[in-house]
Amino acid sequence: MDPSKGEGPATLPPAFLDPSYHPVFFFCSAGSAICPAALARTYSLAPLCCGSLSRERTLLIMFNWAKQQLANVAGTQEPIYGPTAIRSVAEEAAKTPFTELTRDGLKWTAQESTSVETQSFYIFAENGHVALAQVIYSNVAGIRTTCQFNCKVFYPDQSQPHLWCSTPLNNHEFSEDMTSFYADDCAVELSEDGTYYTIKSMNDERGIVNLKVTRSSPGFQAGSTGKTLYGTDLENPWGSMRHAFWPRCVSEGTITTKEGPIDFKGRSLFIHALQGMKPHHAASRWNFVDFQGPNYSAIMMEFTSTPSYGSTLVNVGGIAKDGEIIIGGAANTATHLQVKNDSENDWPEPSHVKYAWSGTDKDGKAVEVLAEGPLGDRVDRVDVMAEVPGFVKTIVAAAAGTKPYIYQYHPKLSLKLKIGDQEIVEEGTIFTEATFIS
């Protein structure tokens, strides 16, 4: 398909192919990507020769035409394939709960088809700050590739509004072995020995990032490949979802804001995520948990597929301590015990949660881990569509049924572990997200 020759399912506006054009991206859950601008820029409202048609009729034609173009390019209208068209990574994890990561498992895939790939670092500083540093690589229909760097800083006890910087990147490239990412004024590099990343960005003077994240436990992925597959022929899938984790890391370095540098010495989580398909087709809801304590770390990534794939629930995660993955796999649950309807959008915002992990450690001991309690006040609610033009927002909502919101929390919850006959209560820092897409 050569878009320059007018080929393809929809007419693309010139801005789509303009190298200076960059969309707006919103990402959450360390890879549960939502890209409204990628949907929006699929519209090309070609001139209509409406003659004597009324204004209302003209707008209706434009509206219906735009909906069809969105469906053609972004694929918002999808048949019901059912649960047989998805193979959860839980099937692999039933035989091989998890595998430790090698350097190959940290390579960027940089797919040439529609996909979103992220590397995300969640950092809990000893001084109480919480930060996200994230690189996003996005490909839309194999036609347009864009990259973005996101930085978010939450201040202790919400003493001041959080900092959010999201900057398009220019002239991206990868290292020869595809383990490091570079762009103008940005670099995310894996060390030669594969034990640490350096994250540097000077793309936004509001948040200049200079961090180092070193793993203190092995990395892992659920099952043998970490992948959930989508398609009617699962031997030749048309989509995939994968998450790879460094669940327990130490961090150092700074994020410099207009008030000066913030020290981010502390604990960290690293996640490499790939959605090898249209993000709004891959999942309709997400739960994400990151607990970091003095001795233990607990992480969880859960998504529910869209109804096209049977609303299938997939949950991957694990428990780690220094030098060891205690358990990992897909035998985890995230439960919203109490919810309250958000008056702005009617989503069931969680207020009381239960996160549970289970498995068997290397010595054959049963392991049960629980974090449960009230979430308290959210630290942020992200209206993903807020920056999309109103007309496009209406079309996307009508055509796709999407109204994505991300709810973020930073509560005080303890981690209760039972390893064999040993019971442990760990106090630490936790960050959670609940995302509703459609």
From TrEMBL:
Annotated protein name in UniProt: Survival factor 1
Domain Svf1-like N-terminal: 116-275
Organism in which the protein naturally occurs: Fusarium albosuccineum
Keyword Transport: no
Keyword terms, alphabetized: Cytoplasm
GO CC annotations, alphabetized: cytoplasm
Chief location category: cytoplasm
Cell membrane listed as a keyword: no
Family of this protein: Belongs to the SVF1 family.
All residue ranges annotated as the Svf1-like C-terminal domain in the record: 277-438
Pfam hit, one: Svf1_C
Lineage: Eukaryota, Fungi, Dikarya, Ascomycota, Pezizomycotina
GO BP term, example: response to oxidative stress
